[in-house]
Inverse folding.
């Protein structure tokens, strides 16, 4: 196994662990029956949603998914082609 494959394997494991932790740290989106009843979603919380911890966790999860995907494809190409 080449040095490149070892480095990519290590990054893949780190991204996988980060994904698990980030996924478990997020809260669910349970709106319940309030959506059907016409509950207002125009509140201070929703206007400042991009600044909350929940939105930051979602953003970090997206980055981790993208990183995991790229590293996984590179690892596959490295192993399959013998780089």
């Amino acid at each position: 196994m080449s040095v490149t494959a070892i480095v990519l394997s290590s990054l893949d494991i780190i991204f996988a662990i980060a994904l698990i932790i980030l996924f478990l740290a997020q809260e669910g989106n349970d709106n319940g029956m309030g959506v059907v009843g016409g509950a207002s979603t125009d509140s201070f919380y929703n206007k400042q949603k991009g600044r909350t911890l929940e939105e930051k966790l979602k953003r970090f999860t997206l980055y981790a998914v993208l990183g995991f995907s790229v590293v996984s494809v590179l690892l596959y190409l490295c192993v399959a082609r013998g780089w």
